[in-house]
Every structure is written in C-alpha cells, then in structure tokens.
C-alpha cells in the first residue's frame, strides 16, 4: 500500500482538540455525552442484530461473536467498544485523541475487559495491514478532514464478507434545526460547536463513497428521538440521523 503523506490525512486537529477537552465526560450519562448514552441502546441493538443475521450467530447467545475481530474507529471513551467486547468480539478501539484512549482504557480495566485501545488513525491502521470482520464507523465521518480517504482507509481493512456500520447526520435544514440549534443551543445536549452543518453527509454522498471503496450498501435506516420515552428509535425518516450497513 502506498505511503500516506501528511497532505493525505483524515484528522481534523480542531475536532480532536474539542473532543480531547471533554475526555473525562464520556462515561457520565448526565454529562456532555449524555445524548450518546440515550442513543446507545438503539445502535447497539441494530449492530448486534444485523451482524448476527450476516454471520449466522445467535444474538441472544453468550458471547455470540467470539472469533470475529472488530474495529471501533473513533471510539471516544469506549461506549461501543465495551459492549462489543462483552458480545465476544475481539475489539480494537482506535481514536486520534490520546486523552480519549486513556479514558477508554481506564474504564475497560475497571470493568475487567480486554480491549486493544490505540491512539491512531484509520489510514495508519490500514497502512499497517490490519484486518477486521466488522468495522464500526459511528458518529465519526462528520468530524473527519477527508471523507473519501477515511472511508477508503476503513474499507481496505474490511475482510471479504465483512460488514461496516456507519452512523452519521444528513445535511438537511431539518438536521440543522434539530441537531445543531435544538441539541446544542436549546436543549444543551451537546456542547455548542460540536457539529458543523457543512460537514454533515447526505446518504447519496455516503453511498457513493462506500461504493467507490468497494463496499455494497445493504441497509439504510433512519433514527429519530422519541420525546415520550426519552430515547431513540429506528425509523424510515433519514432527514436527520441515519445508519448504514455495507458489506465487502
């Protein structure tokens, strides 16, 4: 594989600095990342069920994904890495922020979980020849500097027959109102400036990037907030949050 130059980088330094400053907040359900704690149940169930169907595993079994290797890219404090490890995956959690990785590793150790956490990038892992059965790319692509390079780097690490899960935010006015004005400025779910509407990704743009990287999109699902339950649920509406499953 060709060497990645400094100009070819997926890292947005400002984004890394922003999330590094909040590293201590990851595991506080009432803190700055509280909305991810609300989002976790629906995305965890989605990942588990889609992976179980694809790999012919029993989703209700004990450690159903034993023997499969998973990359949680942009893992933050490990909110997805830990439940994936409990499901039996051999997990590598990667994040560009050293502080995030330290938070994640400390929390995993406290829970006696074995997770390979690394402060690194998708392109560095790809260049090192890492390979995975499943790649989680959740709430990350709207924060990277180069979408196509990031998707290409991730796709190159996916084994034939593997799955990639992507969750992101659509670039619509509805998303601007709800995900930025509402979530950051009105409800205070996220720190102001967490998201840049211009970096949100339309489904067609994501599908195109995945296709160019050699992946086939098999499922696209919207996610909506339910004010009655205070949680998120799957929906047909992809105007704001949505998740995609792609296979190699």
Question: Would you give an account of this structure?
Answer:
- It is a single chain.
- With 248 residues, the chain is an alpha/beta fold.
- The protein has helices spanning 13-20, 34-55, 81-86, 98-110, 122-127, 147-156, 173-186, 203-212; strands at residues 69-73, 90-95, 116-119, 132-138, 158-169, 216-226, 231-235, 241-247.
- An eight-stranded mixed β-sheet has the order 3-2-1-4-5-8-6-7.
- The longest helix has 22 residues, at 34-55.
Question: How would the blueprint of this fold be written?
Answer:
Blueprint: H1 13-20, H2 34-55, E1 69-73, H3 81-86, E2 90-95, H4 98-110, E3 116-119, H5 122-127, E4 132-138, H6 147-156, E5 158-169, H7 173-186, H8 203-212, E6 216-226, E7 231-235, E8 241-247
Parallel strand pairs: 1-2, 1-4, 2-3, 4-5
Antiparallel strand pairs: 5-8, 6-7, 6-8
Order of neighbouring strands in the sheet with most strands: 3-2-1-4-5-8-6-7
Structural class: alpha/beta
Give the biggest beta sheet. Answer: 8 strands, mixed
Distance between the termini: 19 Å
Rounded to an integer, what's the Rg over CA atoms? Answer: 17 Å
Number of helices: 8
Order of secondary-structure elements: HHEHEHEHEHEHHEEE
**3D shape:** globular
Strand fraction equals 15-25%
The average pLDDT is: 91
Which percent range fits the helix content?
A: 25-40%
Query: Would you identify the regions where 5 or more consecutive residues have pLDDT less than 50?
Result: 1-7
Task: Tell how many strands the DSSP assignment holds.
Answer: 8
């Amino acid at each position: 594989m060709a060497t990645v130059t400094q100009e070819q980088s997926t890292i947005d330094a400002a984004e890394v600095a922003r999330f590094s400053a909040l590293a201590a907040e990851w595991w506080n359900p009432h803190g700055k990342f509280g909305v991810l704690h609300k989002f976790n149940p629906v995305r965890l169930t989605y990942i588990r069920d889609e992976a179980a169907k694809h790999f012919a595993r029993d989703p209700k079994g004990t450690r159903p994904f034993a023997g499969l290797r998973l990359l949680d890219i942009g893992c933050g404090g490990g909110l997805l890495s830990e439940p994936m490890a409990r499901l039996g995956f051999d997990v590598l959690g990667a994040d560009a922020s050293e502080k995030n990785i330290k938070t994640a590793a400390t929390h995993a150790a406290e829970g006696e979980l074995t997770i390979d956490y690394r402060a690194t990038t998708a392109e560095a892992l790809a260049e090192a020849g890492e390979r995975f059965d499943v790649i989680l790319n959740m709430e990350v692509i709207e924060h990277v500097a180069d979408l196509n390079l990031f998707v290409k780097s991730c796709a190159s690490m996916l084994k034939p027959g593997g799955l990639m899960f992507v969750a992101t935010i659509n670039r619509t006015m509805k998303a601007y109102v709800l995900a930025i004005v509402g979530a950051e400025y009105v409800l205070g779910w996220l720190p102001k400036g967490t998201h840049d509407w211009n970096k949100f990704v339309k489904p067609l743009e994501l599908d195109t990037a995945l296709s160019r990287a050699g992946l086939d999109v098999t499922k696209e699902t919207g996610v909506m907030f339910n004010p009655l339950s205070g949680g998120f649920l799957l929906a047909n509406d992809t105007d704001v949050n949505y998740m995609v499953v792609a296979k190699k």
